[in-house]
Amino acid sequence: MKFIPDATQGPSITGYGPDWVEVNGEKHHSSIIVSSQGICRPWACTRFEDLTEELFQELAALAPELVLFGSGSKIRFPHPKWISPLYSARIGIETMDTQAACRTYNFLSGEGRKVVAALMV
Questions:
Q1: Which residues share a beta bridge with 117?
Q2: Domain 13-119 adopts which CATH fold?
Q3: 8 Å CB contact between 84 and 53
Q4: Rounded to the nearest 5°, which phi and psi values hold at 26?
Q5: Are 74 and 102 spatial neighbours (Cβ–Cβ below 8 Å)?
Q6: Listing from the earlier edge strand, what are the strands of the sheet with 20-23?
């Protein structure tokens, strides 16, 4: 699916497929972090089973209002211990499949919200 990005300061998700996410026209075939504050970088998590508390601490350090966790092709909820750094920092987290997280990120970013999408591809 292709998107037409809203006017936003940060990167926009411009497309996605079963094994890729496109940010500002550049395809990524591995997990990434996208932030409305201007960040688009790899996320060191290739499989759901590789998730750790440290990976979510990395997201908390970005200090967003909300983290959108795209868990891949199906919804899989992270263990509460893994997301404790977000809870401790009073940062919200929403879990959804990666394609839904892409759509939601663009919507919230377009509203000017401080949002981070952690997308497993």
A1: 34, 68
A2: Hypothetical Protein Mth938; Chain: A, (3.40.1230)
A3: yes
A4: -105, 125
A5: no
A6: 13-17, 20-23, 26-28
2 secondary structure, DSSP code: B
Predicted TM-score (pTM) of this structure: 0.92
Report the relative pairing of strands 92-96 and 40-42 from DSSP bridges. Answer: unpaired
pLDDT tens, N- to C-terminus, the chain (121 residues): 555 554 557 899 999 998 999 999 999 999 999 999 999 999 999 899 999 999 999 999 999 999 999 999 999 999 999 999 999 999 999 999 999 999 999 999 999 999 999 999 9
Please state the φ and ψ torsions of residue 65, each to the nearest 5 degrees.
-75, -35
Between the alpha carbon of residue 90 and those of residues 3, 57, 81, 87, the distances in Å are 31, 12, 15, 5
